[in-house]
Specification:
mainly beta; N-terminal domain of TfIIb; SH3 type barrels; three-stranded antiparallel sheet; YjdM; YjdM_N; YjdM_C
C-alpha cells in the first residue's frame, strides 16, 4: 500500500498513525480522505531552507535595526516560541517577543532555526 505525499510540502516520507497521516518533514497531520484539501497555510522556511512551525526557537543571522528606534536586534539573538503569520502583506511572517525589546515581527529570511 502506497501512502500519498504530504499535501503541504509534497514530501514522500509520510507515515500512518491510527487514522492520521503524518509528514515528518513539516509535521502536517491529516486524515486519509483529506489529501486534496491541504491547509492553505503558506509554508515558511528560514534563511537556510528549514521548515518553521509555531513554537520553534530561531536565531537572528543579521543585525536588524528597529524602525522608529535606535535599538538593534543583534546577530545571534535567540528568539523562543515564535508564531507564524501566513498572510502578511509586508513580508514579516514571524510574530515573536524578544527579551529586552518586546513584541515584534521578523522576516523569516533573517532567522535560522536553532
Amino acid at each position: 500500500m502506497s501512502l500519498p505525499a504530504c499535501p503541504k510540502c509534497n514530501s514522500e516520507y509520510t507515515y500512518q498513525d491510527a487514522d492520521l497521516l503524518i509528514c515528518p518533514e513539516c509535521s502536517h497531520e491529516w486524515k486519509e480522505g483529506e489529501q486534496g484539501q491541504a491547509d492553505e497555510q503558506t509554508i515558511i522556511k528560514d534563511a537556510v531552507g528549514n521548515f518553521l512551525v509555531d513554537g520553534d526557537t530561531v536565531t537572528v543571522i543579521k543585525d536588524l535595526k528597529i524602525k522608529g528606534s535606535s535599538s538593534v536586534v543583534k546577530v545571534g539573538t535567540k528568539v523562543k516560541n515564535i508564531r507564524l503569520v501566513a498572510d502578511s502583506s509586508d513580508g514579516h511572517d514571524i510574530d515573536c517577543k524578544i527579551d529586552g525589546i518586546g513584541q515584534m515581527k521578523l522576516k523569516s529570511e533573517f532567522v535560522k532555526k536553532a
